[in-house]
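This section describes the prediction task in plain terms. A model, or a person checking by hand, is given the sequence of a single protein chain and must write out its three-dimensional structure as a string of tokens. No templates, partner chains or ligands are provided. The sample shown here is typical of the held-out split.
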Amino acid sequence: MNCRWALLCGAAVACLLPAAGSTQAAPVSWNWWTTVSTPLIADPTSSAGIIITGVAGPNSQVPPLYPTSIPTEVTLWNMKAFNTGTLGTKYNISNQPLTVQLFIQDGTTPAAATHEFDWTGQISGYVLNGSVHFTNQYVDGLGNPLANTTQSFTFPGSGNTYAVTPDIFDSPSVSGVLTSASALVDPPGTLDNGGTTNGGTTNGGTTNGGTTNGGTTNGGTTNGGDTGRTNGVPEPSTVLLSCLGLSCLGAASWRKWRARR
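The expected answer:
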């Protein structure tokens, strides 16, 4: 009987023990919108080019239930080409500047804090009759291509961190058709963004994480060390209590076997 009580108590205590990595932040609702500072890019003759627009907002993002939100693709800017030139003429555009702003509001109330993410790009491509093909690369202040376009920000009041990565833009299209460039927003509460800052100090370690994005894989064992990991190993205390319960069951069974003899 004593062993059975020990088993039941051990199971109850194990259930009450906090699981490893339970410090993952809860997901939050957030708003976003974008603006562009270069709405018109045209060839030297102004016969053909592209019109670029931002995305008005706020646009609310409401995450699913705790504990996991998901990274979200948002539209960074829209592009539509035009051509009023001569049929059969190829109009080229090369390394024209593009400045885009993405605003993240930490919450969905009017009083929620807002942060502005900024990128400068260079648009290149051509318009030929109705055929259009444009690419963009994001650059630093000297015009050099950025090796890493991700930006992150932690709101001081809430401690919530948002990481934003613009997607590669390489878009063949046709004149007059709307084409969009997007960005991936990693909000707080996701498995990749659920610790102090993206699962560690910055992106899961010191800077993007140690060996591979933050330790062994995404910041330690899986997804941010002991923060936000899934399928981790059990707590040592849980293993100890389980072994204790199994030992008690074994001892009880052995006593019954001896009593029958």
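For orientation: The mean pLDDT is 73.
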